[in-house]
UniProtKB/TrEMBL annotation:
<dbReference type="GO" id="GO:0006412">
    <property type="term" value="P:translation"/>
</dbReference>
<keyword id="KW-0479">Metal-binding</keyword>
<protein>
    <recommendedName>
        <fullName>Peptide deformylase</fullName>
        <ecNumber>3.5.1.88</ecNumber>
    </recommendedName>
</protein>
<feature type="binding site">
    <location>
        <position position="134"/>
    </location>
    <ligand>
        <name>Fe cation</name>
    </ligand>
</feature>
<dbReference type="InterPro" id="IPR036821">
    <property type="entry name" value="Peptide_deformylase_sf"/>
</dbReference>
<dbReference type="GO" id="GO:0042586">
    <property type="term" value="F:peptide deformylase activity"/>
</dbReference>
<feature type="binding site">
    <location>
        <position position="92"/>
    </location>
    <ligand>
        <name>Fe cation</name>
    </ligand>
</feature>
<keyword id="KW-0408">Iron</keyword>
<keyword id="KW-0378">Hydrolase</keyword>
<comment type="function">
    <text>Removes the formyl group from the N-terminal Met of newly synthesized proteins. Requires at least a dipeptide for an efficient rate of reaction. N-terminal L-methionine is a prerequisite for activity but the enzyme has broad specificity at other positions.</text>
</comment>
<feature type="active site">
    <location>
        <position position="135"/>
    </location>
</feature>
<dbReference type="Pfam" id="PF01327">
    <property type="entry name" value="Pep_deformylase"/>
</dbReference>
<dbReference type="InterPro" id="IPR023635">
    <property type="entry name" value="Peptide_deformylase"/>
</dbReference>
<keyword id="KW-0648">Protein biosynthesis</keyword>
<comment type="similarity">
    <text>Belongs to the polypeptide deformylase family.</text>
</comment>
<dbReference type="GO" id="GO:0046872">
    <property type="term" value="F:metal ion binding"/>
</dbReference>
<feature type="binding site">
    <location>
        <position position="138"/>
    </location>
    <ligand>
        <name>Fe cation</name>
    </ligand>
</feature>
Amino acid sequence: MPGMAMREIRVIPDPVLRTPCDEITTIDDRVRSLVADLLETVDAEGRAGLAANQIGVNLRAFSWNIDDEVGYVLNPRIVALGDELQDGDEGCLSVPGLWYPTTRAAYARVEGIDLDGNPVVVEGAGLMARCLQHECDHLDGKLYLDRLERSVRVRAMRELRERL
């Protein structure tokens, strides 16, 4: 895709990370360029997902890079979460170097659209489920830190303040 670029990742406390993203109402060259940049930027070692606001764009879009599959979705909404939970350490490109135990649903299903306006369903278990929930949280202006158990969150915020 022309115009693809590896974009700088915004990090906490950048206010764009706490701002809910706007729905994409028109698929134009700006949105096509955004998707190209999301795909280019997520396609690096150690990156599982990337929301548009993490590169400074306040639109509902994210990309993923899970098990050698790279993709994107526009206007994603979580439409189903499994009853079973998964525990595991979670990290975030916008909160570099901090990994904390985060409980998520073991299965997630997201619906949205592609660049042609066609319906898209992205679903999965394990890491994919974690990624879908994590990226949708970003688009709602939330970070994984917000989901931590209180005692763990206190520890995480202390460590974060020491790093800033």
